[in-house]
Amino acid sequence: MSYRESSVPDSSDKTIVVTGANTGIGFETARVLAARGARVLLGCRSEDKATAAIQAIQALHPAADLKWIPLNLADLASVKRAADMISEEPRLDVLVNNAGVAMAPKTLTADGFELHFGVNHLGHFALTGYLFDRLKPAARVVNVSSLAHIDHSIDFDNLCAEKGYK
Questions:
Q1: Strand order in the sheet with 94-97
Q2: pLDDT category, 15, cuts 50, 70, 90?
Q3: Of the candidates 78, 81, 68, 79, which has an alpha carbon nearest to the alpha carbon of residue 124?
Q4: Pairing status of strand 65-70 against strand 39-44
Q5: Coil, helix or strand for 18?
Q6: pLDDT, tens digit, for every residue of 91-121?
Q7: What is the 3 state secondary structure string of 61-79?
Q8: Per-residue DSSP letter, 90
Q9: What 8-state DSSP symbol labels residue 162?
């Protein structure tokens, strides 16, 4: 049995956060969940891109309940502010940790971590941690990943790329 868009159940009683919801898998996730009636909080860095995504979804589903949450996973202060905004919601049913970066040049996050590690791991870990009490007892956390782990590994002795970068 394959899972398809049509497999997604009615979600009209759910509030769902999707990181990186303005493009790619995140956008498609937000679109489908909105179509199923969920209140979808789009965690995105750029207000312009989030607004464009919201408008695109609402063009397909005019009654979609969508809200932009400013979220830069490369800045742990931004992650905390986003978690505080999300915590103001009456409920939180699902957190979809989707946003990520790939093949970026050597860059550090606002907190001094190598960008890939900071965004793809630490940012989502922090967001989940800040929201953990809101997610209990029966909510879901969905972590989206890529196949990059097949050809790569984490060099725990070089997390901030001080000893080289590739």
A1: 65-70, 39-44, 15-19, 94-97, 140-143
A2: very high
A3: 79
A4: parallel
A5: strand
A6: 999 999 998 888 788 888 999 998 988 998 9
A7: CCCCEEEEEECCCCCHHHH
A8: S
A9: T
Q: Which residue has the higher pLDDT, 3 or 122?
A: 122
pTM comes to 0.92
Q: Strand pairing partners for 41?
A: 17, 67
With beta carbons less than 8 A apart as the criterion, state whether 143 and 94 touch: no
Task: List Cα–Cα distances, 3 to 6, 7, 139, in angstroms.
Answer: 8, 6, 21
**Which SS3 state, helix, strand or coil, does residue 108 take?**
strand
Average pLDDT of the chain is 91
- Which candidate, 40, 41, 35, 38, places its Cα nearest to that of 6? 35
∠ CA(39), CA(43), CA(49), 5° rounding? 105
Q: How far is CA 118 from the centre of its chain?
A: 13
What average pLDDT does range 122-141 have in this prediction?
93
Q: Quote the tokens at residue 25.
A: 């898998």
Task: Report the DSSP pairing between strands 94-97 and 15-19.
Answer: parallel
